[in-house]
Specification:
Belongs to the ABC-4 integral membrane protein family. LolC/E subfamily. The chain is α+β, with helices and mostly antiparallel strands. It is built from 15 helices and nine strands.
Length: 419
Amino acid sequence: MFKPLPAFIGLRYAGAQRRSDDSAGLVSFISGLSMIGLILGVALMIVVMSVMNGFDRELRERILGIMPHATIYNASSEVDWAAMRKKLAADAQVLSAAEVWQVNALARRGAEVTPLLVQGVNPDTIVEVSNISEFLSPEAFPAMLDAVEPGVVLGRGIAAKLGVEQGDYLSLIVPNNDAASGGRRAARVAGFRVVEVFHSGTALDQTLALVSWNQAKALAGNKGGAGIQLRVTEMLEANWIMRRLLQELPREGFYGTDWSRTHGNLYQAIQMSRNLVGLLVLLIIAIAAFNVVSTLVMVVIDKHTDIAIMRTMGASTRQILLTFVSQGALVGLVGAVVGGVLGVLGSLSVTDLVAGLESVFGIQFLKSDVYPVDYLPSELSWGDVALVVGAGFLLSLLATLYPALQASRVQPAAALRNE
């Protein structure tokens, strides 16, 4: 079988050193360390990028699946919100719309008090804008509309702070912020029964509560907080779409906000963390790849005599160069491919692995009151895998150039004179 001479010799040099002398053993040891470092660097970078992709996915699909892309408000009590919802939903760039009455309140149960965001919703339309129903039982919304015992749906974080469970009672308090009354009017207070506690696994579990539209209207004193939640065709264009819709509305007093104001900092933090962590791990890969330089320099020193003999037998400078490039390329290829395989396996199992460790040790590494989600998400991207594996191999290949050039410059007469 035809075997190109440089590749054949280079692959032989890259194999395990079978001689028992100290020089060969040291070369073999350093070569193994270079390959292990490259494997770990590539695997780690694939896992890290998958975790960052997972956080990005959870923001888009879970957090912004519950919260709207944009909301348009008006403080006037004269707005026909049902008609306004139909008007906005008819826009070509709006997928769905739902009326909401939003109130900042305090929840109290005994001596425990915690702030929360109360949203008064219409069960018939909220499911078109939000996927909150995925975390609720079918009985939650009907129980919330009970006229005798008004119900409230709480996030699990709020319920834990107040020490309440489904079926318990609590009070929602809205402080008086009416400047016209000089602050003399008492705060509005209403009692609610906890009809369900939802767990979305996101930071919303710590802040969000749902009541009926009429109950939220009463808590707000029929003043401010009413609006239309929108889900648009392009999430990243939500601000521009919201501004265009505001300009097209016929009356004054409308204003709006979009997800970039409420969760934009989180999105930017995820992207910045992804870039910074990716850069740091890339440096680890580069360090591991350039360890190949140490390996090949020692091989060149160890093989001075072999190189001189090959040159006297007619091997060209190019063939000597390719011999050592082939050796470094094999180390880089094996390290990048094995690291890629381990990285893919790690990305697919890291969520379950962390959950298992949490279960075994009885601790929670991520909490939704600190992090955007309370578990470690992961989303494998084959494009990222190809990029990392390719970068690892390319860096290893570049690292071979200097030692290979040094080998090609060995003078046969000078090398053999010292033997």
